[in-house]
Amino acid sequence: MKIVRLVLIYSFLFFGLNQSLYAQVTEEPDSVEVTEEGEEGEEEAPEYDSVIVTGTEKYWDFIRPRNFLFDTAYAPAREFYTAWDTITINPYKKDLKVMEDTIRLVLANFDDCSFHPPAIGDVTSNFGFRSWGRRQKFHFGTDIRMEVGDPVYAAFEGVVRIAKRSSDYGYMVVIRHNNGLETLYAHFSQLLAYPGQPVKGGNIIGLAGSTGRSTGPHLHFEVRFQGEKIDPATLIHFPSGSLLNDTFQVDKGCFKHLYDVQSAKLKAKQTKVPKYIKARKNDTLTKIAKRYGVPVKRLTKLNGLKASTKIKSGRRIRLR
């Protein structure tokens, strides 16, 4: 009996010690302080507030340190971004199709920009317009065929900005990379990443699936700069899983597809224009023309009014 009692005591002490060590490892956040000194004449990067990442997703219980605190001083590519948002996919709201600058990004080198293809599989849908039922819809990424449970990899080194469930994307991840790009990965069956997590190119960030608006298991992969999408095929040769070049030039030409999207939306809006509408308070033909995508000249001719004429609320206006 004494031997059994001693074994039980030693087992209890050993288990308690292990639990204590584990608690220290998981509860203590990374305390390394990073400081950046700007060159003379350069504007200093804006100071971000610290963000406490919280969530109820079960996978976080296994991979995220308890009470994880992410100091946004660690946010990468601070020269291109002034916000760190763990909820909104595009908080930047910039119109890059009219950008005047040309920015050269280093995609890969031997220091902190290693590349890894986001997934291994055949491309099933490219960037651009495609049929969606009876209408055309612009597809802002590259789809790669996968099986449920296949690993999905971070394309470059960086920090996870978003890891959550979205109604359209399903389980999805957004990573901001050291090179200035952001990449988005969608339709996971399971996430293996959390906001604020540092990753390297080739780290597994989730398992493929078909969550959200998806017709079958695949990875939807997007490349973004300051919130706007770029055709991934202009950076990556998907059949070989390699970069086309170690550098990439960002200019307004990368976003010329936005004009096509804008034009398609306007055309679709025009096909749904009613024959008559009732004017709103303080309406003019110019306001109505902009609202319905109808030329002002057509409205002046159909209604016998000047473009600047204020129209009485409730007046019947012919559009076509």
In short:
The protein is α+β, with helices and mostly antiparallel strands. The chain has five helices and 22 strands.
Q: Would you mind describing this structure in some detail?
A:
- This protein is α+β, with helices and mostly antiparallel strands.
- The chain folds into two domains: 76-260, Glucose Permease (Domain IIA) (Distorted Sandwich), CATH 2.70.70.10; 273-318, LysM domain (Membrane-bound Lytic Murein Transglycosylase D, Chain A, Roll), CATH 3.10.350.10.
- The protein has five helices and 22 strands.
- It has helices spanning 2-27, 60-63, 257-271, 285-292, 296-303, and strands spanning 51-52, 69-70, 103-106, 123-125, 128-132, 135-139, 142-145, 151-153, 158-166, 170-177, 182-191, 198-199, 204-208, 218-225, 228-230, 236-237, 242-243, 247-250, 276-278, 283-284, 310-311, 316-318.
- The strands form seven sheets. Strands 4, 7, 8, 9, 10, 11, 12, 13, 14 and 15 form a ten-stranded antiparallel beta sheet that branches. A two-stranded antiparallel ribbon has the order 1-2.
- The protein is elongated and about 70 Å long.
Content-based structural category? alpha+beta
Shape: elongated
Number of strands: 22
As for the number of domains, it is 2
Task: Name some characteristics of this structure.
Membrane-bound Lytic Murein Transglycosylase D, Chain A, 22 strands, 2 domains, alpha+beta, 19% helix, ten-stranded antiparallel beta sheet, 320 residues, two-stranded antiparallel ribbon, elongated, Glucose Permease (Domain IIA)
